[in-house]
Amino acid sequence: MEQLPIETTVYSMSGEPPVDSNRRADERLLTLFRVGTIVIGDKRELCLVKNISAGGTLIRAYCTLKPDMAVHIELKQGQSVPGKVTWIRGTDAGITFAERIDVIELLKSGGEGPRPRMPRIEAKCVCFVREGATVHRSTMHNISQGGLSVETANSLRIGADVTVSIPGMEPQGAVVRWKDGDRYGVSFNSVLPLAGLVAWLHERSGPIA
User: Fold this and answer.
1) Angle at 22 between CA 160 and CA 27, to 5 degrees
2) Does the pLDDT at position 49 exceed 80?
3) Which of 82, 61, 63, 64 is nearest to 72 (CA)?
4) Which of 105, 118, 119, 183 sits at 20 to 30 Å (Cα–Cα) from 197?
5) Stated pTM of the model
6) Of 177, 175, 172, 176, which Cα lies nearest the Cα of 193?
7) Which domains occur in the chain, in start order?
């Protein structure tokens, strides 16, 4: 049975602030974004964090923001990151950090409270999805401990048992869960250890300059 895609916070190793892609406007999508705090002067407001990179963040704000406004974003308790508003579209706003942050460290420090979903990390590379005797060359767009999103021109069957091969990782047994155009959501049969995923990200990204 086909499941609907779920839109969650995306983590990126890029040093550039996230852009307003506005890729999906389908109201059927479930959204489970990370909750953050935006600080303006002495006022604190909650926000939803849609995308985090080393250079900035894209948030859904519930307060009035203006371009070039100085703000602080609290992505985890006790750590406030200074930045400024660089663009606004409706309730969405782009924030550029004053200094680059360590996204991998942010992923490792998940906090002490419960985490409703495993973090989704933007990581584009070629991977291979094998369904039976057929191997599909695909482009991976993002990955989490629980699965990944791939794009392929070849059709994958919803509910199919597949094996996913990603450079630098052991092949993973998985199941195709949803389809959105040429994009597919695939969930792993076993959750990836966070330490292994973080090590893989370190190998891909290298140290922060």
Assistant:
1) 60
2) yes
3) 82
4) 183
5) 0.60
6) 172
7) 6-108 (2.40.10), 121-205 (2.40.10.220)
